[in-house]
Design goal:
Blueprint: E1 4-9, H1 14-25, E2 30-37, H2 41-51, E3 55-58, H3 61-75, E4 81-84, H4 85-94, E5 99-102, H5 110-118, E6 122-125, H6 128-134, H7 136-145, E7 149-151, H8 154-163, E8 171-178, H9 188-192, H10 196-199, H11 209-217, H12 219-231, E9 239-243, E10 249-255, E11 260-264, H13 270-278, H14 292-295, H15 309-320, H16 324-340, H17 348-359, H18 368-389
Parallel strand pairs: 1-2, 1-5, 2-3, 3-4, 5-6, 6-7, 8-9
Antiparallel strand pairs: 8-10, 10-11
The chain binds nicotinamide-adenine-dinucleotide and magnesium ion.
Length: 406
């Protein structure tokens, strides 16, 4: 069998590492074609030496230059071409391959993901932000090009697998599970005091900094709700959320006869990644099955959108639609960054997002140009809000969010 060629955007990150672990476990099945990342040239040099990509791209031109020097020194004329900047990332995404794993974090993944789809490549999507921002622009482009967008996110992989158990027309709704994050049981006052170090310490999953904070605010679940809407072509009311602190049930699908199909497993990103890489075949992986007897109980509860308003804000953005999910995403990226840099408190994140949503009412999302313009404007608003808020007493800085129940 000819090896399947895999390109990885965001190769030096957490999803990149899990993807390469699957590749390394099955060298006869997979070959790396292109690798791309942002700034970490040392990590990329190691990956390039180990996995022999045909082409490499770094978003940061200085990092690209360093990488070129290192690879030239070691590999001489056998060194792969190193591209740089936004156009380099797009070229790497479009480079000849069988599957592109889109795993850059945040809005920076949008244009590379589009470039992969436009080049006619199937995409294994981890970069949920691109689908939240672009919604139907991305799914329409994928249908026009006849390419598949396969879920990598564990919840969406679970739904994808559960949907194989029935007919689409018999589907009632989907239930996305959420761990609830590290602050599930904290009171409102305690949430004001949470530090970046505490927020970066997720109880069940080992992930990049941004998604770990998103998991703590429940914005990650909000982004996933919107992601599910587009991936599976659902109506907003068909997407629901259930907190499940053990992270063993990765999500569920409810059929009209009341049957609930769930997908379970140890919290590890290799199975959902491998699923996107090999579906409908399942690869042997060195991943333990949950020890159910030891777990004893799996528990479920409704999310609390009073303490975690980000989830309600995401539902609002999904329902109002158009450009609003892109505004939500942009504001969240700026706010999370400000929180990690200690400019705003943890509870400032939903406040910044809510105030940014209020300042940029939904327009119709008619083109990528509109999207980029709205994204830029929303980031500016959010940045101004975080600056205004810096130096003021924690949490009293920007308008209270409009709290709606999910
Ligand atoms: P991470 O921070 O560990 O890695 C991010 C990757 O993106 C790195 O390779 C980095 O170099 C690259 N990158 C960042 N900015 C860039 C830029 N401007 N240009 C080019 N490359 C850039 O993040 P992660 O945890 O691997 O998450 C990646 C994506 O996958 C996110 O969208 C996240 O929501 C999604 N995701 C992650 C997990 C997980 O378990 N880590 C699970 C589900 C979904
Ligand atoms: Mg997830």
């Amino acid at each position: 069998m000819k090896p399947k060629r895999i390109s990885i955007l965001g190769a030096t990150g957490s999803i990149g590492a899990s993807t390469l672990a699957v590749v390394a476990a099955h060298p006869e099945r997979y070959r790396v074609s292109a690798l791309a990342a942002g700034t970490n040239h040392a990590a990329m040099a190691e990956l390039a030496l180990r996995f022999h990509p045909e082409i490499v791209a770094m978003g940061d031109p200085t990092a690209a230059e360093r990488l070129r020097e290192t690879l030239q020194k070691i590999l001489g004329t056998r060194a792969p071409e190193v591209l740089e900047g936004e156009s380099g990332l797009a070229t790497a995404a479009a480079f000849s391959t069988d599957l592109v794993v889109s795993a850059i974090v945040g809005g920076a993944g949008l244009l590379p993901t589009f470039a992969a789809v436009r080049a006619g490549h199937d995409v294994a999507l981890a970069n949920k932000e691109s689908l939240v921002m672009a919604g139907n622009l991305l799914t329409d482009e994928a249908s026009r090009r006849g390419v598949r967008i396969l879920p990598v996110d564990s919840e969406h992989s679970a739904i994808f697998q559960c949907l194989a158990a029935g007919r689409r027309e018999d589907l009632d709704h989907v239930l996305l599970t959420a761990s609830g994050g590290p602050f599930r049981t904290l009171g409102a006052r305690e949430l004001e005091m949470v530090t970046p170090e505490q927020a970066r310490n997720h109880p069940n999953w080992d992930m990049g900094a941004k998604i770990t904070v998103d998991s703590a605010t429940l914005m990650n679940k909000g982004l996933e709700v919107i992601e599910a809407r587009w991936l599976f072509d659902l109506e907003p009311e068909q997407v629901r959320v259930l907190v499940h602190p053990q992270s063993i049930v990765h999500s569920m699908v409810v059929y009209r006869d009341g049957s609930v199909i769930a997908q379970l497993g140890t919290p590890d990103m290799r199975p959902p990644i491998a699923c996107a890489m090999s579906w409908p075949e399942r690869l042997p992986l060195d991943v333990p099955v949950p020890d159910f007897a030891r777990l004893g109980a799996l528990t479920f509860e409704n999310p609390d959108t009073e303490r975690f308003p980000c989830l309600a804000l995401a539902f609002r953005a999904m329902r109002e639609g158009g450009t609003l999910p892109a505004v939500l995403n942009a504001a969240n990226e700026v706010a999370v960054d400000a929180f990690l840099n200690r400019h705003i408190p943890f509870t400032g994140i939903p406040r910044v997002v809510a105030a940014t949503l209020d300042a940029h009412p939904a327009q119709s999302l008619d083109s990528l140009e509109t999207l980029l313009e709205v994204d830029r404007a929303a980031r500016q608003t959010a940045l101004a809000l975080t600056r205004k808020s810096a130096g003021k007493p924690a949490g009293k800085s920007v308008a209270e969010p409009t709290q709606r129940r999910a």
